[in-house]
Amino acid sequence: MLKLERLAQGLIGPARDPLAPDTRAHTLLVGLLAWAGLGASGLSSVSYGPERAYLALGAHPQLGVFLALATLLTVWVLSLAYRQVVELFPSGGGNYKIVSELLGPRFGLVAGCALLVDYVLTISVCLASGTDALFSLLPVAFQSHKLTVEIGLGLLLILVNLRGIADSIRLLLPLTLGFVLVHVGLIVYGVASKAADLTGTLARSTTQTLALSGDIGWPLLMALFLRAYSLGGSTYTGPEAIANNVNLLAEPRVRTGRTTLLSVGFPLAFMAGGMILLYSLWGAQPTYGQTLNAVVFKSVIEQLGIAPGVGHGLLLLTLALEGGIVFVAANAILIFAPSLLGNMAADSWLPHRFCNLSNRLVKQNGVVFVGVCALLILLLSRGSLGMLVVLYSINVFLSLALAKAGLCRHWWQHRREGPWLGRILVAATGFCVASGILLVTLTEKFFEGGWVTLCLTLLVIGGCAVVRHHYARVEALRTQMDTEFTLPAQVLATVTRIEPSPQAPTAVILATEHWGAAIHTLLWVQRLFPNRFTHVLFVGIVKVEGQVWGRIDGVQQRKTRLDESMDQLEAFCAQAGLSSTRRIGYGTDPVAELQKLLGEATRHYPGCVCFSNKLILQNSWGFSEWLHNQTPLLLQRQLHLDGIPLVILPLKLNGAGHKSVMA
């Protein structure tokens, strides 16, 4: 066991103190780390988004110039729209939080589930696209090994993210910088070298487009153009990742977030539009075993007039950076997705364990869950980028359209409180763009596999609704139990506590913010061991989760609620003629912290017995076992290894009078 712990610590890193003043600062993103960490997802789409859009034009590459302009403008408009999100929601949360607060929790559920499915698909697309770029450097015979490499790289990214956000970004920062510098340089040179023909190309494109409209009609022409425009949809989603994760940025968050949006939006718009323009100017044609970027960059580099060996090395570097940047993007999604899972879990749409932080202050359950789901999709699709791109980028525009609709509603409702017209126009433009892309994408992709994405999203929505209903039912029953055992304020103020004796037989009972459960456990103890214990030690944990970490007020609010619960418990003991004391700890891992506190309790009170409870629900078919009871069972195992007994007693919630359970 010790060897495994040392191995895990070596791979993941030592534990961090969540309450240390400098810990939060060391894990926040600022400057280049913010740009690379939050912008990599959008920047990486340059490796595959423009290619998919351009290839969709088929035999009509003359539309490429107009497609490049539309792509550039779309990215820029969405970047401006998301500046509003950063201003209104500086604590992060992105589309899920926007929609939940501005349109209601049910719309928020749809947006959250759509984003969750999209995040998983994005990781799969990034791994497949990056591996395609890397294998463009190798002979065709190596193509059969792509899937194995994709799975291996996915596992590596999961491991890196378990170390922490800043650590993973620092490791991959050089790839992002190199990618942008090399691509901007090649795009500028490639367009500049064709500058003399640029006006002619634009004129020919216009003439050929008008001729095509005369042959097939404007409706069919627009359908062709919009299909290509929608297939490049992955390029338009970069700004969303920044707005989703403003909480990861250093203070002042709003200014840092707005700066990051501009610093990502401008190069993304330039590179995405520039790549499509480059395809058009250089007449790029697809080649088996190579990406379209590899084909056009090879032509551009050959035009540089440098030595063949140097040119080949530059091409290898460019393609290696393309492969690397999409892995950085997959890494970025492994940062974003756990935050989304944590936000949804905090609202009880998902199991609460997704809120948990590891001792490295990482939502490791979310990292592992999303990473494994992405690897499963890669296995099911056999790593086919074409298939994955069809499934990808539908859901993000659903959540994006809902978010922009929420912003439109917000600015309309607050139109008398300040300047609103410009803001609502930006939000409305974003809504029109997002909903238009969504409708076109659904129409074009539905029978090509888009229906799979929709069915998967509906399945996730249904599962979240079941989880939410379960948690609401359990919370209502727990609150009812608390009410039954609540002592009036005057009793709490006047009751006389009994001073404990160090030698008194002691029962150690785990307590939470719901005092009814701890009193229920105490009644069980009195029934099973009559007149055995005269002193009760209540032990509780203020759990530092992702939603409260870094917020002193959030931690203090949980401490206050736990203290109120302890007050009720101590007053109940005093009325029962028992002395009582309390011990409260703080930590991200409740099992480890409780193990430490109970170890101290057994040394301070020799012969004490530790008690906890296990939730029992009728007709749950084992569902509650998966959503609850993890802490007592895991703690019992750890304490048994330390030679400390922990008795777990049943806590039956059935909506009936809980006091009668002890009869």
UniProtKB/TrEMBL annotation:
InterPro entries according to UniProt: AA/rel_permease1, APC_K+_Transporter
GO MF annotations in UniProt: transmembrane transporter activity
Subcellular location per the Swiss-Prot or TrEMBL entry: Membrane
Protein's membrane topology: Multi-pass membrane protein
Alphabetized UniProt keyword annotations: Membrane, Transmembrane, Transmembrane helix
The keyword Transmembrane helix belongs to this UniProt entry's keyword annotation: yes
Top-level lineage group: Bacteria
Residue ranges of the TM segments: 25-43, 63-82, 109-135, 147-166, 172-192, 261-282, 314-341, 361-379, 385-403, 424-443, 449-471
An annotated GO cellular component: membrane
Stated name of the protein: Amino acid permease
Lineage: Bacteria, Pseudomonadati, Pseudomonadota, Gammaproteobacteria, Pseudomonadales
